[in-house]
Each structure stands twice: as structure tokens, then as C-alpha cells.
Amino acid sequence: MVSIRRATERDFPDILRIQREAFSEYLKVYEVSPWMKETLENVKLDAADKIILVAQEEGLVVGSVRFWTVAGVCVIRLLSVSLAHQGRGVGKALMREAEGMAPDAHKFYVCTMLRTPRNIGLFLSLGYRPESLLPNHYHKLDLICFAKYPHVEPPRQ
Ligand SMILES: CC(C)(COP(=O)(O)OP(=O)(O)OC[C@H]1O[C@@H](n2cnc3c(N)ncnc32)[C@H](O)[C@@H]1OP(=O)(O)O)[C@@H](O)C(=O)NCCC(=O)NCCS
Questions:
Q1: pTM assigned to the model
Q2: Domains of the chain, each with CATH number or no CATH
């Protein structure tokens, strides 16, 4: 069974290993090396002012996500799940837990690379809607950014 908890410093090497593995699938399409080369020092710095969650199964870390809230906007980044554990709800569970830990946020915000139909399907299925395109953005990547407004009723179909 998968459980989600706050990361501790002991998890940081696993987080980086899974991130490298997960983002390696884009190597042929995008320049993703910044996320694959992140250092332990950088994760420590990130952990100082952001929340890092890990998903754990049978004692092993199998995924992670980071988020922080600025003026009511909860920014979610670096969602990653190890290849062997993808497609079983771990990514969604991490996203839902992050949302649950930011009850005062009026908006959740997450960006992903534009040509990633699976990620787009994932965020749509969690109630996020595309909000903006950021061409030539971080590391020259084309990004699509999604938002979810938890306190706004969805329009009736
Ligand atoms: C994106 C990622 C975190 C998803 O993790 P995961 O544990 O596989 O995701 P889940 O199993 O919780 O959810 C899968 C959902 O993705 C969507 N999905 C999966 N394959 C899809 C496809 N081919 N087309 C469209 N949507 C798809 C579906 O909504 C699916 O939910 P469902 O099974 O209930 O229908 C993981 O694939 C990953 O680490 N990718 C590399 C890093 C990355 O791109 N991170 C996102 C950057 S913000």
C-alpha cells in the first residue's frame, strides 16, 4: 500500500534518484538535464522553504512532489514517480495530499512540458484547467500551466 508523508533529509538521495529516472523519459524530446542534475545541496535549500512529500511503498520511496504557497497560490513542482510504480495512482495521490495540506490556498498552480499528453491527462483528471502557455520558458522549454480553484464551483454541464 502506498502512504504519503513529509520527506526527511534521509529521503533526499532517493528523491533525486527517482527524479532522474522519471525525467529521463524526456531526454529525446526536451533538455531536462537541470532536473536530472539537481544536487543534494539544492534539495536541502528547497526543503528550507517548501514542503516536500514522498510516497512510500513497502518501505521504499517511490515518488515525490514539492509545493509552497505564496499569497494564496500553491505552486506545485517536480512531481515524479519511479518508472516501476507509474500508472498506479501514486502521482495522483501525491497531488491530492499536497492540495489537502494547503487548505487556505485559493489557487493551485502547476506547469508541465507542453508535449506530454499523459501529464495533461493527469492534471485534467484532477480538476486542473489549462491557464497559460509559456513558450521558451525555463531552460528554453515550452510549458503549459494549469490552475485549479478549489473554492469555485465548476460550471454546470
Ligand atoms: C507524471 C507522473 C508523476 C504521473 O505519475 P503516475 O503515478 O504514473 O500517475 P497516476 O497513476 O497517479 O495517474 C495517471 C493518470 O495520468 C493520466 N494518463 C496516464 N496515461 C495517459 C495517457 N496516455 N494519456 C492521457 N492521460 C494519461 C490519466 O489521467 C491517469 O489517471 P487514471 O489512471 O485514473 O486514468 C509520472 O509519470 C512521472 O514521474 N513522469 C515524469 C516526470 C514528470 O513528467 N512529472 C510531471 C512534471 S510536473
A1: 0.93
A2: 2-148 (3.40.630.30)
